[in-house]
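Annex B. Sample input.
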Amino acid sequence: MIVRPATAKDNAKLVEIEQMTPQGEQIKLVSERKDYFFRAKKFESPILLVAEDEEKGDILGIMGVGPVSVRLQGTTTRGGLIFDWRSNPLTQKGLPRHMLRLWQGVQTEIANQNLQFIFGYVKEDNLRSMTILQKYGAQDVEQRTFLTMPVHASFCRDTSGVSQVQLARTIDSELEKTILEERFGSLDLFTEQTDIAFIDQQRKQYMYGKFSCGASSVKVWDTTAEYSQRVLDMPSIYKLARPVFKAASKVIALPRIPRLGDEIKVWQLYDLILDQLADLPYLLERIRLAAIENDIDYLVICMNAQERGFEQLAKKAWIRLNYHLFFVPMEDVPLPKGPTYFDVTYL
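Annex B, continued. Sample output.
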Protein backbone atom coordinates (compact mmCIF):
# COMPACT_ATOMS: atom_id res chain seq x y z
CA MET A 1 0.00 0.00 0.00
CA ILE A 2 1.21 3.49 -0.85
CA VAL A 3 -0.07 6.94 0.07
CA ARG A 4 0.28 9.46 -2.76
CA PRO A 5 -1.28 12.68 -4.10
CA ALA A 6 -4.55 12.19 -5.98
CA THR A 7 -4.40 13.00 -9.70
CA ALA A 8 -6.95 13.67 -12.44
CA LYS A 9 -6.53 10.02 -13.53
CA ASP A 10 -8.15 8.98 -10.23
CA ASN A 11 -11.35 10.94 -10.88
CA ALA A 12 -13.53 8.07 -12.11
CA LYS A 13 -12.48 5.76 -9.25
CA LEU A 14 -13.07 8.45 -6.62
CA VAL A 15 -16.51 9.30 -8.00
CA GLU A 16 -17.36 5.59 -7.91
CA ILE A 17 -16.25 5.29 -4.26
CA GLU A 18 -18.46 8.23 -3.27
CA GLN A 19 -21.43 6.65 -5.02
CA MET A 20 -20.91 3.50 -2.95
CA THR A 21 -21.29 5.41 0.32
CA PRO A 22 -24.92 6.64 0.48
CA GLN A 23 -26.06 8.93 3.28
CA GLY A 24 -29.17 8.59 5.42
CA GLU A 25 -30.96 5.83 7.26
CA GLN A 26 -34.54 5.35 6.03
CA ILE A 27 -34.12 7.49 2.90
CA LYS A 28 -30.73 6.84 1.32
CA LEU A 29 -29.19 9.46 -0.95
CA VAL A 30 -26.12 8.89 -3.08
CA SER A 31 -23.90 11.86 -3.88
CA GLU A 32 -22.77 12.51 -7.43
CA ARG A 33 -19.94 14.80 -8.45
CA LYS A 34 -19.16 15.37 -12.08
CA ASP A 35 -15.64 16.29 -11.05
CA TYR A 36 -14.46 14.81 -7.75
CA PHE A 37 -11.87 17.57 -7.44
CA PHE A 38 -14.32 20.48 -7.52
CA ARG A 39 -14.08 20.92 -3.74
CA ALA A 40 -10.28 20.81 -3.78
CA LYS A 41 -10.23 23.55 -6.41
CA LYS A 42 -11.80 25.95 -3.91
CA PHE A 43 -8.53 26.08 -1.96
CA GLU A 44 -5.04 27.30 -2.69
CA SER A 45 -2.50 24.43 -2.55
CA PRO A 46 -5.02 21.76 -1.43
CA ILE A 47 -3.79 18.53 0.13
CA LEU A 48 -5.54 15.54 -1.45
CA LEU A 49 -4.04 12.11 -0.80
CA VAL A 50 -5.15 8.59 -1.70
CA ALA A 51 -4.16 5.23 -0.23
CA GLU A 52 -3.66 2.76 -3.07
CA ASP A 53 -3.24 -0.99 -3.22
CA GLU A 54 -0.10 -1.26 -5.37
CA GLU A 55 -0.81 -4.82 -6.52
CA LYS A 56 -4.46 -4.40 -7.52
CA GLY A 57 -4.44 -0.70 -8.33
CA ASP A 58 -7.50 -0.14 -6.10
CA ILE A 59 -7.95 3.11 -4.20
CA LEU A 60 -8.57 2.20 -0.58
CA GLY A 61 -9.34 5.66 0.78
CA ILE A 62 -8.91 9.39 0.32
CA MET A 63 -8.30 12.39 2.55
CA GLY A 64 -8.31 16.09 1.66
CA VAL A 65 -7.32 19.20 3.58
CA GLY A 66 -7.86 22.75 2.32
CA PRO A 67 -5.53 25.47 3.68
CA VAL A 68 -7.41 28.57 4.88
CA SER A 69 -6.62 31.83 6.66
CA VAL A 70 -9.08 32.39 9.50
CA ARG A 71 -9.31 34.29 12.78
CA LEU A 72 -8.89 32.78 16.21
CA GLN A 73 -9.50 35.10 19.14
CA GLY A 74 -8.96 38.05 16.81
CA THR A 75 -5.65 36.82 15.38
CA THR A 76 -5.23 35.58 11.81
CA THR A 77 -3.95 32.00 11.68
CA ARG A 78 -3.38 29.40 8.99
CA GLY A 79 -5.33 26.20 9.34
CA GLY A 80 -6.61 23.33 7.26
CA LEU A 81 -10.19 22.17 6.69
CA ILE A 82 -10.73 18.42 6.32
CA PHE A 83 -13.09 18.38 3.33
CA ASP A 84 -12.85 14.75 2.18
CA TRP A 85 -12.05 11.71 4.26
CA ARG A 86 -13.62 8.48 3.18
CA SER A 87 -12.82 4.80 2.88
CA ASN A 88 -13.66 2.47 0.01
CA PRO A 89 -16.59 0.39 1.40
CA LEU A 90 -15.33 -2.67 -0.50
CA THR A 91 -12.21 -2.77 1.69
CA GLN A 92 -11.92 -4.22 5.18
CA LYS A 93 -14.39 -3.27 7.90
CA GLY A 94 -13.66 -1.75 11.28
CA LEU A 95 -10.88 0.84 11.47
CA PRO A 96 -8.81 0.22 8.33
CA ARG A 97 -5.04 0.65 8.51
CA HIS A 98 -5.05 2.82 5.40
CA MET A 99 -7.19 5.46 7.14
CA LEU A 100 -4.44 5.90 9.73
CA ARG A 101 -1.79 5.94 7.00
CA LEU A 102 -3.70 8.68 5.21
CA TRP A 103 -3.81 10.69 8.42
CA GLN A 104 -0.06 10.32 8.88
CA GLY A 105 0.57 11.36 5.27
CA VAL A 106 -1.61 14.42 5.65
CA GLN A 107 0.22 15.40 8.84
CA THR A 108 3.47 15.57 6.87
CA GLU A 109 1.89 17.86 4.26
CA ILE A 110 0.38 20.01 7.02
CA ALA A 111 3.84 20.52 8.51
CA ASN A 112 5.24 21.40 5.07
CA GLN A 113 2.63 24.14 4.67
CA ASN A 114 3.06 25.41 8.25
CA LEU A 115 -0.60 24.98 9.13
CA GLN A 116 -1.22 25.66 12.82
CA PHE A 117 -4.33 23.51 13.20
CA ILE A 118 -6.84 21.41 11.29
CA PHE A 119 -10.59 21.26 11.72
CA GLY A 120 -13.59 19.53 10.21
CA TYR A 121 -17.32 18.95 10.45
CA VAL A 122 -18.24 15.37 11.32
CA LYS A 123 -21.79 14.03 11.35
CA GLU A 124 -22.67 12.85 14.85
CA ASP A 125 -23.24 9.23 13.76
CA ASN A 126 -19.86 8.98 11.96
CA LEU A 127 -18.17 7.09 14.77
CA ARG A 128 -15.24 5.91 12.63
CA SER A 129 -13.99 9.40 11.80
CA MET A 130 -14.59 10.68 15.35
CA THR A 131 -12.60 7.76 16.77
CA ILE A 132 -9.59 8.53 14.57
CA LEU A 133 -9.78 12.27 15.24
CA GLN A 134 -9.98 11.80 19.00
CA LYS A 135 -7.08 9.37 18.84
CA TYR A 136 -4.97 12.19 17.44
CA GLY A 137 -6.00 14.83 19.94
CA ALA A 138 -9.07 16.35 18.30
CA GLN A 139 -11.43 18.30 20.52
CA ASP A 140 -15.16 18.74 19.98
CA VAL A 141 -15.64 22.52 20.20
CA GLU A 142 -19.10 23.16 18.75
CA GLN A 143 -22.25 21.52 17.45
CA ARG A 144 -23.81 22.86 14.26
CA THR A 145 -27.06 21.77 12.68
CA PHE A 146 -27.95 21.54 9.01
CA LEU A 147 -31.62 22.48 8.75
CA THR A 148 -33.39 21.17 5.65
CA MET A 149 -36.60 22.86 4.53
CA PRO A 150 -38.82 21.69 1.64
CA VAL A 151 -40.18 24.29 -0.75
CA HIS A 152 -43.66 22.85 -1.35
CA ALA A 153 -45.54 25.27 0.94
CA SER A 154 -45.39 28.98 1.74
CA PHE A 155 -43.19 30.13 4.62
CA CYS A 156 -45.58 32.91 5.64
CA ARG A 157 -49.34 33.40 5.86
CA ASP A 158 -49.23 37.12 5.14
CA THR A 159 -47.29 37.45 1.88
CA SER A 160 -47.70 41.23 1.60
CA GLY A 161 -44.10 41.81 2.65
CA VAL A 162 -42.61 39.43 0.09
CA SER A 163 -42.66 42.13 -2.59
CA GLN A 164 -40.31 44.19 -0.43
CA VAL A 165 -37.56 41.56 -0.75
CA GLN A 166 -34.91 42.55 -3.26
CA LEU A 167 -32.74 40.10 -5.21
CA ALA A 168 -29.24 41.09 -6.31
CA ARG A 169 -27.67 38.55 -8.68
CA THR A 170 -24.28 40.25 -8.31
CA ILE A 171 -22.84 42.23 -5.40
CA ASP A 172 -20.16 44.85 -4.86
CA SER A 173 -17.09 43.04 -3.47
CA GLU A 174 -15.72 45.86 -1.33
CA LEU A 175 -19.12 46.73 0.14
CA GLU A 176 -19.81 43.07 0.90
CA LYS A 177 -16.40 42.74 2.55
CA THR A 178 -17.31 45.62 4.87
CA ILE A 179 -20.71 44.11 5.68
CA LEU A 180 -19.24 40.69 6.46
CA GLU A 181 -16.51 42.25 8.60
CA GLU A 182 -19.01 44.22 10.67
CA ARG A 183 -21.42 41.30 11.15
CA PHE A 184 -19.14 38.24 11.38
CA GLY A 185 -15.59 39.56 11.82
CA SER A 186 -15.52 38.96 15.59
CA LEU A 187 -16.42 35.26 15.22
CA ASP A 188 -13.78 32.55 15.42
CA LEU A 189 -12.99 30.85 12.08
CA PHE A 190 -14.05 33.98 10.18
CA THR A 191 -12.37 33.73 6.79
CA GLU A 192 -9.98 36.53 5.95
CA GLN A 193 -11.23 38.28 2.82
CA THR A 194 -7.82 38.74 1.18
CA ASP A 195 -7.98 37.35 -2.35
CA ILE A 196 -10.93 39.37 -3.68
CA ALA A 197 -10.41 38.16 -7.26
CA PHE A 198 -10.70 34.52 -6.17
CA ILE A 199 -13.75 35.26 -4.02
CA ASP A 200 -15.40 37.05 -6.95
CA GLN A 201 -14.74 34.03 -9.17
CA GLN A 202 -16.36 31.72 -6.61
CA ARG A 203 -19.39 33.99 -6.27
CA LYS A 204 -19.79 34.27 -10.03
CA GLN A 205 -19.78 30.50 -10.33
CA TYR A 206 -21.89 29.47 -7.32
CA MET A 207 -23.82 32.40 -5.80
CA TYR A 208 -27.37 32.52 -7.10
CA GLY A 209 -27.96 35.87 -5.45
CA LYS A 210 -28.37 37.94 -2.31
CA PHE A 211 -31.90 38.43 -0.97
CA SER A 212 -32.47 41.57 1.14
CA CYS A 213 -35.41 42.83 3.18
CA GLY A 214 -34.57 46.16 4.77
CA ALA A 215 -31.33 45.62 6.71
CA SER A 216 -31.85 41.83 6.80
CA SER A 217 -30.29 39.60 4.17
CA VAL A 218 -29.23 36.09 3.23
CA LYS A 219 -27.36 34.69 0.24
CA VAL A 220 -27.97 31.52 -1.79
CA TRP A 221 -25.20 29.11 -2.87
CA ASP A 222 -25.96 26.84 -5.83
CA THR A 223 -23.67 23.91 -6.67
CA THR A 224 -26.29 21.86 -8.52
CA ALA A 225 -24.35 22.16 -11.80
CA GLU A 226 -21.47 20.17 -10.28
CA TYR A 227 -22.95 18.27 -7.37
CA SER A 228 -26.25 16.49 -6.87
CA GLN A 229 -27.87 13.68 -4.91
CA ARG A 230 -30.03 10.80 -6.11
CA VAL A 231 -32.49 8.67 -4.21
CA LEU A 232 -31.05 5.20 -3.78
CA ASP A 233 -33.65 3.72 -1.44
CA MET A 234 -36.66 4.68 0.69
CA PRO A 235 -39.27 2.92 2.86
CA SER A 236 -42.09 1.18 0.99
CA ILE A 237 -44.69 3.49 2.52
CA TYR A 238 -43.16 6.45 0.67
CA LYS A 239 -43.26 4.54 -2.61
CA LEU A 240 -46.95 3.74 -2.09
CA ALA A 241 -47.79 7.30 -1.06
CA ARG A 242 -46.05 8.91 -4.03
CA PRO A 243 -48.93 8.74 -6.57
CA VAL A 244 -51.42 9.91 -3.94
CA PHE A 245 -49.26 12.91 -3.00
CA LYS A 246 -48.67 13.72 -6.67
CA ALA A 247 -52.39 13.84 -7.42
CA ALA A 248 -53.35 15.69 -4.22
CA SER A 249 -50.60 18.29 -4.69
CA LYS A 250 -52.67 19.79 -7.52
CA VAL A 251 -55.21 20.86 -4.87
CA ILE A 252 -53.14 21.44 -1.70
CA ALA A 253 -49.44 22.07 -1.05
CA LEU A 254 -47.70 18.75 -0.47
CA PRO A 255 -44.02 17.83 -0.70
CA ARG A 256 -42.74 15.99 -3.78
CA ILE A 257 -41.96 12.36 -3.08
CA PRO A 258 -39.22 11.39 -5.54
CA ARG A 259 -38.92 8.09 -7.35
CA LEU A 260 -35.91 5.84 -6.93
CA GLY A 261 -33.14 7.30 -9.04
CA ASP A 262 -34.59 10.82 -9.04
CA GLU A 263 -32.23 13.71 -8.52
CA ILE A 264 -32.64 15.91 -5.44
CA LYS A 265 -31.57 19.53 -5.87
CA VAL A 266 -30.61 21.74 -2.94
CA TRP A 267 -29.82 25.40 -2.39
CA GLN A 268 -27.63 26.38 0.57
CA LEU A 269 -28.50 29.55 2.49
CA TYR A 270 -25.61 31.39 4.14
CA ASP A 271 -24.45 34.66 5.72
CA LEU A 272 -27.85 35.21 7.35
CA ILE A 273 -28.19 38.69 8.84
CA LEU A 274 -31.44 39.45 10.68
CA ASP A 275 -32.08 43.05 11.62
CA GLN A 276 -35.68 42.12 12.45
CA LEU A 277 -36.89 38.56 13.07
CA ALA A 278 -40.11 39.52 11.27
CA ASP A 279 -38.09 39.80 8.03
CA LEU A 280 -37.20 36.10 8.02
CA PRO A 281 -40.50 34.66 6.66
CA TYR A 282 -40.46 37.16 3.79
CA LEU A 283 -36.87 36.32 2.89
CA LEU A 284 -37.62 32.59 2.94
CA GLU A 285 -40.77 32.96 0.87
CA ARG A 286 -39.00 35.00 -1.81
CA ILE A 287 -36.23 32.41 -1.96
CA ARG A 288 -38.80 29.61 -2.10
CA LEU A 289 -40.45 31.15 -5.16
CA ALA A 290 -37.06 31.48 -6.87
CA ALA A 291 -36.23 27.87 -5.92
CA ILE A 292 -39.43 26.58 -7.52
CA GLU A 293 -38.60 28.47 -10.71
CA ASN A 294 -35.23 26.69 -10.76
CA ASP A 295 -36.55 23.18 -9.90
CA ILE A 296 -34.94 23.19 -6.46
CA ASP A 297 -36.39 20.75 -3.91
CA TYR A 298 -34.92 21.87 -0.59
CA LEU A 299 -33.32 24.84 1.15
CA VAL A 300 -30.57 24.07 3.68
CA ILE A 301 -28.82 26.29 6.20
CA CYS A 302 -26.05 25.45 8.69
CA MET A 303 -26.44 27.13 12.08
CA ASN A 304 -25.43 27.08 15.71
CA ALA A 305 -28.40 26.85 18.08
CA GLN A 306 -27.36 30.15 19.69
CA GLU A 307 -27.53 32.12 16.42
CA ARG A 308 -30.39 34.52 15.89
CA GLY A 309 -33.19 32.97 13.86
CA PHE A 310 -32.25 29.37 14.67
CA GLU A 311 -35.48 28.56 16.53
CA GLN A 312 -37.64 30.03 13.79
CA LEU A 313 -35.79 28.14 11.05
CA ALA A 314 -35.71 24.90 13.05
CA LYS A 315 -39.53 24.97 13.26
CA LYS A 316 -39.70 25.03 9.46
CA ALA A 317 -37.10 22.28 8.97
CA TRP A 318 -38.20 18.75 8.20
CA ILE A 319 -34.74 17.31 8.69
CA ARG A 320 -32.09 18.30 11.23
CA LEU A 321 -28.62 16.82 10.90
CA ASN A 322 -26.22 17.52 13.75
CA TYR A 323 -22.52 17.88 13.06
CA HIS A 324 -19.61 18.26 15.47
CA LEU A 325 -16.85 20.77 14.78
CA PHE A 326 -13.58 19.04 15.63
CA PHE A 327 -10.40 21.04 16.15
CA VAL A 328 -6.87 19.62 16.24
CA PRO A 329 -4.14 22.09 17.33
CA MET A 330 -0.81 21.44 15.63
CA GLU A 331 0.78 24.36 17.51
CA ASP A 332 -0.08 26.42 20.58
CA VAL A 333 -3.26 28.12 19.37
CA PRO A 334 -6.51 28.83 21.26
CA LEU A 335 -9.57 26.69 20.71
CA PRO A 336 -12.39 28.38 18.79
CA LYS A 337 -15.47 29.41 20.72
CA GLY A 338 -18.95 29.12 19.27
CA PRO A 339 -20.86 30.28 17.50
CA THR A 340 -18.14 30.16 14.86
CA TYR A 341 -18.33 31.44 11.30
CA PHE A 342 -19.33 28.84 8.72
CA ASP A 343 -17.89 29.50 5.27
CA VAL A 344 -20.22 28.15 2.58
CA THR A 345 -17.28 27.41 0.26
CA TYR A 346 -16.43 24.51 2.58
CA LEU A 347 -19.40 22.57 1.16
